[in-house]
Design a protein that fits this description.
Layout: H1 2-15, E1 23-24, E2 34-35, E3 41-44, E4 47-51, E5 62-66, E6 74-83, E7 87-95, E8 104-111, E9 121-124, E10 128-131, E11 135-139, E12 145-150, E13 162-169, E14 172-177, E15 180-187, E16 198-203, E17 210-220, E18 239-244, E19 253-257
Parallel strand pairs: 11-15
Antiparallel strand pairs: 1-17, 2-5, 3-4, 4-17, 5-16, 6-13, 6-17, 7-8, 7-16, 8-9, 9-10, 11-12, 12-18, 13-14, 14-15, 18-19
């Protein structure tokens, strides 16, 4: 009887879904597996390094694209520091060759010197600022944005090394800095949201900048997890978020209307 129970236990264990572990996406030596403008991207001091020389160099933001295939549900961590401008981690994104080579649009975990914009959700060439550092946001099926919760933004010096985390499960997105949650987003706008796509790192047009990236780790999460709007009511005290100021990253700021 004991042997039979042991065999049944072993069989049950083998039928459980295997939990994927974190896999490094950067070998610390070269850009194998990555695709970007060689005039901008290299490996220095064991880090992915992107550099620009000034405003005239780029006509549009460019990206270093991971060619390991699209990602769906995942957890990603990367240590990043940047000076001179801002950068970001694109995910569930798509290439936009009509805009130019190495152009990408989609969800971005921003890496920005302004605290409200650091580790926010910005949609490159899309909906712009969606959810800022310190906010929990719900986008309803009619594209209205609701401020469901607030907390003090996580403040760090982006010129120093910090770990950025993205957790994407279905239409639920979470960003973190050094393990502290910056945003929590539920995206019910089916026409605009993305459930899979490319990973990439941004080099921003404008002032000369340097970004360095290391310890890039990816863990795949189980498929599914899309939350139904009917089963996730907006909190009764939530406020509609209205975009204020000119459009564009680092310029507009989300404001809740009472």
């Amino acid at each position: 009887m004991m042997i039979r129970c042991l065999l049944l236990s072993l069989i049950a264990t083998t039928l459980l879904p295997a939990q994927d572990s974190f896999v490094p996406l950067f070998n610390g030596k070269d850009l194998t597996g990555w695709d970007g403008n060689p005039e901008l991207w290299s490996v220095e001091d064991g880090c992915i390094t992107g550099k620009t020389t000034g405003p005239e160099q780029l006509a549009y933001n460019q990206f270093l694209i991971w060619r390991g295939g699209p990602v769906k549900n995942f957890e990603l961590t990367a240590k990043i520091k940047v000076t001179g401008n801002n950068t970001g981690i694109q995910y569930r994104s798509k290439e936009l060759p009509e805009n130019g080579k190495w152009s990408v649009g989609g969800y971005q975990c921003d890496v920005h010197p302004s605290a409200p914009n650091n580790a926010m959700v910005y949609e490159e060439r899309g909906r712009g600022i969606i959810c800022q550092n310190g906010q929990g946001v719900v986008i309803d099926p009619e594209a209205k944005r609701w401020l469901a919760s607030e907390h003090d933004p996580v403040k760090v010096n982006v010129a120093e090394w910090h770990e950025y985390t993205i957790i994407a499960q279905g239409n639920h997105l979470i960003h973190k800095i050094d393990g502290q949650v910056t945003i929590d987003l539920l995206d019910f706008e089916e026409a605009k949201r993305s459930l899979e796509g490319l990973l990439a790192f941004q080099i921003h047009r404008g002032p000369a900048m340097t970004v360095q990236i290391k310890d890039v780790l990816l863990k795949k999460l189980p498929d599914g997890g899309v939350i139904d709007f009917a089963n996730s009511p907006i909190p009764s005290d939530a406020q509609i978020i209205e975009a204020k100021g000119p459009k564009g990253k680092g310029k507009g700021k989300a404001k809740a209307s009472k």
